[in-house]
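Folded chain entry
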Amino acid sequence: MNDYLTYLQDIFAFTEGKPLLFTQLFFWGFFAVVLLFYALVYKKIALRNIYLLLVSFFFYYKTSGVFLVLLIFTICSDYNWGRLIHNAKSKRSRKIFLTISVCLNMLLLGYFKYAYFFASSCNELFGADIQFFNHFSHFTNTFLGTHFSVDKLILPVGVSFFTFQSISYTVDIYRGNVRPVKNIFDYGFFVCFFPHLVAGPIVKAHDFIYQIYLPYDLKRKEFGLALFWILNGLMKKIYADYIATNFIDRIFDNPNYYSGVETVLGIFGYSLQIYMDFSGYTDIAIGVALLLGFRLKTNFNSPYKAQDVSDFWKRWHISLSSWLKEYLYIPLGGNRQGTVGSYIAISILAIVLVMLTGKLWLLLVLFGLAIAFALISYFSKQFRDSVNTNINLMVTMLLGGLWHGSSWLFIIWGGLNGLGLVIHKLWLRVSPFKNSKSFVVKAIMVLITLTFISFTRIFFRSDSLDTVSLIFDRIGNHFGGSLFFEIIKGYSVVLSLILIGYLIHWIPAKQKEWYRNFFAGLPVYVMALAVVAVIFVMYQLMSDEMQPFIYFQF
């Protein structure tokens, strides 16, 4: 009896440190049960939506435990703010309700991502003795029987993703792009549909809500494509974990032990790893959602084929890039001019930078720079125009970096990418190659872009600025070029896999579409054999302990 109760507890209870992953056998057992009962309700739209909402709640509970409370709070809050915005009689009232909704969402996100950072920074800046107290942990310990430490902050899985999705709903209602959903169950389903809930792709309201009310429709070819995306995503994840465990993690964890050659290879390897890991998750999410009758948009479009930084950001994490463009960059003024919002955002970034350094004098330096910029802009129209057309681009990329975490490393990473975008805009004015049809020129531009993106990721992947410094020291002062062929031989297997990964990535889009459609048209029994083959390969390459998807931490 006790064994039976323990087994049920393993199935239904949340286990800390063991989120529900797409790569776990448990998830696919769970999904099989979901499909079994889905077959009974999928024709009744209202019942289907409630059923998938409850399934999504269970999925998030298994992944993040009591933080389900936050998800439910977000759903209840923005569902009601959306109704108030839609029913408001005046534009002023609508704007007030929208502002309250956005502020509540950003306060929730800010508390869980940055509260501990602000408390420790205030102590360092002002010599204070603020003792951080986690009010959410205290609440759940008191009322829900948890045992969280109240002096630590735990980040809820996927909080950035479901918060951004919820913001898109109230903003889209305000803009008139969508009408409010019929009931709170439909809204809850939109926010927490489990395939994309914890690591994207970020779903915007006007791209998804209309699908909630469409009848189930899955063609034979779409079934094949869904299965393809799932298998493709699983293979990518196993691939990413293998090259990380056997090469990349070792270099970033102990850069002093490796030559510059190994470090550079590890940097390019990490670019492939993070792409395989993150796009693998979204491939599976797209496939699972499609089996349930819902279409999620592509989140990656062969980003390492990009010939410039601007093209890269149109291909990488498309759901976040387009969200930032639609709900931040354009409202700030786009490439036309800076607005009041632009300068508020710059002020927030300045405060964050001061808190990161713990040096009040930096505030005076930044204030001085702001005055200098203002004076130069006043006397130089060319400089003023350049600032106006690029300021929102830099602000968006810096805030995008800050979205990933309260660290100098993410700020620098975002700033470097923003600088890359600005430089590319200037380069286009004088580039003799922008209309070139030459394969050689295009290949060189792809490699330059990949190199730039990969080296900015040193800041993204490293755990401290000291690690970044060590990595650049190994590359600059201990390159070890004479060991190149010996290193290639010593890491022949993992480096071959990295090379093969890039070569597959660079296959032309038409060929990729051809083999996807070819797979989708195969007989079902052949697809079943493909599933068995992929599972066999997975368990040959799988590490003992599967790593969570990289973007779970955001």
